[in-house]
Amino acid sequence: MSDKLIINAAITGCVLRKEHSRHLPVTIGEITECAMRVRDAGASIIHLHARREDETPSFDPRDYRDLAASVREACDDAIVCVSLSGRHVSDIATRAAALESHPEMASLTLGSMNFISGPSINSPETICELASRIYAAGAVPEMEAFEAGFIHYASYLIKKGVLRPPYYFNLLFGSLGSAPLDLTGLGHMVSLLPAGSTWAAGGLGAYQLDANVMAIAAGGHVRVGLEDNIHYDRDRTELADNVRFVKRIARIGSEMGRLPASPEEARQIIGLSAPSPAQSL
């Protein structure tokens, strides 16, 4: 089981628009079709962001309920993870509204940082309150770490009882305001992870493929998708789509002895409980 590769498909995000890539899914129908196709290509976790009709991020719990229900109907075994991103809003209740969709996992960014387009603010109070709401909703945090200090803070929260097992970390590299992608940085962040953690690596832009391959070689898992990168090639001349991304990393992983994990295998690796009736609808 430890050789299996969890592919976490971040298929839309909250920043990019159709004007950036015609392949970006933004409507419920598009996101659902994409989720089904990446699941068939080898993804076991579907990382969701809801959008309004004008493609801007939605924080309406009804939109998340409708989106999650549609995705579950199309691929009923996939692990549904919703975003509680603070890129556009700071209000905790607004960010936590996605939890009304009864996800199995929900993103929890473990600190503040600067993206090239602006800051992402996550105060200690916000992190603790979002963690509490994630657990109360019956979900597990998908902890996002952009540099080593985020993991150090997670260990502190574990000691304080704010965070509890199972621990799943996305290590994200390549943003100008956070950790660069290199072997030293990856190794250092992995060395700081709490015992028993499951971890995946993702990279922004041109760093995505390198981060994924390094993670596979190091025994980790991967986050891949248009949320982080819209180009298939290093020269940034060819637009990608989510299915091609997942198929490529599934092929590379298989050639390296890491076959894609099914959703049920991913649950066992991470330590997720069986989905509740509400999470299976």
From TrEMBL:
Q: Which GO terms describe its molecular function?
A: 3-keto-5-aminohexanoate cleavage activity; metal ion binding
Source domain of life is: Bacteria
Q: Show the Pfam families listed in the entry.
A: BKACE
Q: Which cofactor does it need?
A: Zn(2+)
Keywords of the record, alphabetical order, are: Metal-binding, Transferase, Zinc
According to UniProt, the name of this protein is: 3-keto-5-aminohexanoate cleavage enzyme
Q: Which gene encodes it?
A: kce
